[in-house]
Design brief:
two-stranded antiparallel sheet, 313 residues, mainly alpha, 65% helix
Length: 313
């Protein structure tokens, strides 16, 4: 049943992405010619995309790896969270309606993933590369910082930890429970990555001129937070920790993005040279073509000796 849930999520996510494109990409960007080719975009962005994919894959493989290598800890940190906030989250289930449960499940599973993916896409499509690199960095850091907490600080979802909170999403359909528990032991609560990643997207988008998408994310963020609390997934403390995490990683991206990207750029050049990825640049002095690694920022012309500045994006 796990693969069935994945197919359903992918199907609806693709539909949402098409809707977002026409709703939130400014018309002038849809009509005008791109300032870069698809090859340039791939050459310029592949290191960040690859690292983000590796980090995401690490998170998805966490539970299977724990199970195979028997890396489970023999303690439970749920009582600490319960001591802090008690059953505060139960107030979000004071009124439970089947239609609301289905809607919030859609929000949790589809809206969240589609918004995160589209944030990458809209920043690339509108050529806002500084914001795109910042979002890539906060995305990676959010996952990396949360990962040890999921391994060493297990907190059970509220639906199975509190007697007066129902696990609404997990009991909605056996396909959902089977699909989620394949990659999630239901104790990866603290901090909430749903809150962290959406809030990170919101912070980054607020640095752009994408007004409609900014308003949309401003509405989406509290909706996703409500969904995690209403469905019996997260504690209020998880949400606060997730938002704190996103503020911290956004601060790092704002202050140290260039230094981190310089290191990533140097590593990318080494990889490109080793596997033969090349891009042609034209010398502005003698007009000869030179093959260079895409992330090499300057190159000396072998014919006339001129130094050519090269920006991959």
């Amino acid at each position: 049943m796990a693969w069935q849930l994945s197919v359903v999520i992918i199907f609806f996510t693709l539909i949402m992405l098409v809707f977002y494109f026409f709703a939130f990409v400014p018309e002038e960007f849809r009509k005008r010619k791109r300032g870069y080719t698809a090859r340039q975009l791939i050459n310029g962005y592949w290191p960040y995309l690859l690292l983000a994919a590796v980090v995401y894959g690490l998170m998805q493989a966490q539970f299977p790896l724990q199970r195979e290598l028997n890396l489970f800890v023999n303690y439970d940190c749920t009582p600490y969270i319960e001591y802090i906030e008690g059953d505060l989250v139960a107030c979000f289930q004071s009124h439970v309606y089947p239609a609301l449960t289905y809607l919030m499940t859609f929000v949790y599973l589809v809206l969240f993933s589609s918004v995160i993916i589209f944030t990458f896409l809209i920043l690339a499509y509108t050529e806002q590369m500084t914001s795109l690199k910042r979002f890539s960095l906060v995305f990676i850091l959010d996952y990396l910082i949360a990962f040890p907490f999921y391994l060493l600080f297990p907190v059970t979802v509220t639906g199975y930890a509190l007697p007066n909170v129902q696990p609404l999403m997990y009991e909605l359909n056996p396909m959902i429970y089977a699909g989620i528990t394949t990659v999630d032991p239901l104790d990866n609560c603290f901090p909430s990555l749903h809150a962290a990643l959406i809030f990170s997207a919101l912070l980054v988008i607020y640095t752009t001129n994408l007004r409609r998408y900014r308003v949309f994310l401003t509405l989406v963020f509290p909706t996703i937070v409500f969904a995690t609390l209403y469905l019996g997934v997260h504690w209020v403390t998880d949400i606060a920790a997730g938002m704190t995490l996103s503020v911290f990683t956004f601060w790092i991206a704002n202050h140290y993005c260039e230094q981190i990207m310089d290191c990533a750029n140097a590593a990318a050049v080494g990889i490109e040279r080793s596997i033969g990825i090349e891009e042609m640049v034209v010398c502005t002095t003698c007009m000869c073509q030179i093959a260079v690694a895409p992330h090499l920022r300057c190159v000396k012309c072998p014919r006339c000796g001129a130094v050519i500045e090269h920006d991959v994006m």
